[in-house]
Write a structure and sequence with these properties.
CATH architecture of the largest domain: 3-Layer(aba) Sandwich
Strand content: 15-25%
CATH class of the largest domain: Alpha Beta
Number of helices: 8
CATH superfamily of the largest domain: Periplasmic binding protein-like II
Helix content: 25-40%
Low-confidence stretches: 1-29
Number of strands: 12
CATH topology of the largest domain: D-Maltodextrin-Binding Protein, domain 2
Order of helices and strands: HEEEHEHEEEEHEHEHEEHH
Shape: elongated
Length: 282
């Protein structure tokens, strides 16, 4: 699962409105801290399938989409998505937006969410677990299940007695050198585990790109805590309300394009309550 960690200026409304009114099209001033010449993105250079320095991640594509609506070029500030990420990028005023951030985290000001996704169960398509939709399913008993240590599915595994044969994978790593989800899927392919639990926006695209014999099953029937679905937003600096509203407007007006981009990447999308899979492209 992607890491979302780390912990101003608010202009008078009249002044902000005057700046917007006299700005050039596509270059509306939102704050003296927000660039008017480029769409400045804070991103991890080695966090595929989300972001990569070569622009191949789906968050890179999302950045290009939003920048095109603003008629601005994308400019990146690269920093590993780990402790200090927000402090050394967004808070340091080196960039103006984080493309993927969980709703409700106080280190950033969240935009409206542009997608809701969920943890998933990944198994071989032709195996005996392909019809499993809940972690309470008796078919999972005594199975070797891979899970990223410390993530929400771990609690559900414990509740259902699935930790005895579980194989944990590291949560906090430097993605330049280690990819726990890819390691887990390689172990599944090799038969060393029987199933894998993964955050959908991470495991889904990797499966689509590299593991055609696997199926990704959104865990939308788990109604006990902790919840397994999360709403994903863009993150901006605290106090940047005008910038937040501008991005909210873009998200609202181009939601169908955003959905299509995510579906193309292999991200499993669910409704806002996390209990139903969205139809493709919806």
């Amino acid at each position: 699962m992607p890491a979302w960690a780390d912990r101003f200026l608010a202009f008078p409304v009249l002044f902000a409105l005057l700046l917007v009114a006299f700005a050039e099209p596509g270059k509306a001033q939102t704050s003296d801290l927000v660039s008017t010449t480029s769409f400045r993105v804070c991103a991890d250079p080695a966090n595929l399938p989300m972001s990569a320095e070569d622009g191949s991640g789906y968050e890179n594509e999302l950045a290009e989409l939003i920048a095109s609506k603003l008629d601005l070029p994308v400019e990146y500030t690269w920093y590993p998505m780990a402790t200090g990420f927000i402090r050394n990028t967004l808070k340091a005023k080196r960039c103006d937006v984080v493309m993927g951030y969980a709703q409700g985290h106080e280190l950033v000001l969240n935009t409206n969410h542009y997608m809701t996704s969920v943890y998933t169960l990944i198994v071989p398509k032709d195996g005996g677990l392909a019809e499993v939709t809940e972690l309470s399913d008796p078919l999972l008993k005594d199975k070797r299940i891979g899970v990223i240590a410390g993530t929400p599915p771990s609690a559900h595994m414990a509740r259902n007695g699935l930790l005895v044969n579980a194989r944990p994978y590291n949560l906090v790593v430097d993605r330049r050198y280690e990819s726990p989800t890819e390691n887990m899927l390689e172990d599944l392919k090799a038969g060393e585990i029987d199933a894998a639990l993964s955050w959908g926006p991470l495991g889904g695209p990797i499966v689509k790109q590299s593991y055609p014999d696997f199926i990704v099953i959104p865990l939308i029937k788990e109604d006990l805590p902790p919840r397994l679905f999360f709403r994903i937003t863009m993150g901006v600096r605290q106090g940047e309300k005008v910038w937040q509203r501008e991005l909210n407007s873009l998200i609202r007006r181009h939601q169908d394009e955003i959905n299509a981009l995510m579906v193309k990447a292999g991200v499993p999308l669910v409704n806002d309550m996390g209990d139903a899979v969205l139809e493709t492209g919806k």
